[in-house]
Design goal:
- The chain is α+β, with helices and mostly antiparallel strands.
- Strands 1, 2, 3, 4, 5, 6, 7 and 8 form an eight-stranded mixed sheet that branches.
- Helix 2 packs antiparallel against helix 3.
- The protein starts with 14 loop residues before the first strand and ends in a 6-residue tail after the last helix.
- The model has no long low-confidence stretch (mean pLDDT 87).
């Protein structure tokens, strides 16, 4: 049984210039790998979509009563059941949602602020575990598995560049 409850509804959603504001993260960890130069390889965590095929990174609406960083951390717990250290901002990524059009964003425009999350804990129970599965994979596998082009951009142009510059450890394939 999970004591945490996922937030639902749109009453507290943030919007700016006709776009719904989203917060999300790319959860990652290091695993030992005898074949790599450093002895470690970086893996990212992807989750199943609740609305169709393909894998995603945790993300969701940024609400009025929280900071964007708090929203990114909340989404990681709610959707992927992970906690950790929220690292750096990876970038803003714009996309069009087919399922989330409303009076404040009639065209379904969204702007996602994405962060790197160094995972320290995987929860045994989390709010959306009945509708989502989580899968750890290499960067290469994740690039092939991304459901949305903007998430692939966040991974390759955001996370991979950030990881190489800031972390400077582990192989990414």
């Amino acid at each position: 049984m999970c004591d945490l409850v996922a937030r639902t509804g749109r009453l507290q959603q943030r919007y700016k210039d006709g776009s719904r504001l989203i917060a999300g993260c790319i959860p990652f960890r290091y695993v030992k790998d005898g074949n790599s130069e450093s002895g470690e390889v970086v893996q990212v965590l992807m989750i199943s979509s609740s609305s169709g095929p393909g894998l995603l990174f945790p993300k969701g609406g940024w609400e009025n009563d929280e900071t964007v960083k708090e929203a990114a951390v909340r989404e990681a717990v709610e959707e992927a059941g992970v906690r950790g250290i929220l690292m750096d901002f990876l970038g803003d990524y714009e996309f069009k949602s087919k399922t989330h059009q409303d009076e404040f964003s009639p065209e379904g425009l969204c702007k996602a602020a994405m962060y790197a999350l160094y995972v320290k804990e995987e929860l045994e129970a989390w709010p959306e575990q009945k509708t989502r599965t989580r899968t750890w994979m290499t960067i290469g596998e994740a690039v092939e598995s991304c459901r949305h082009a903007w998430m692939k951009d966040a991974l390759v142009e955001g996370f991979c560049k950030w990881h190489k510059e800031k972390m400077g450890k582990g192989d990414e394939d």
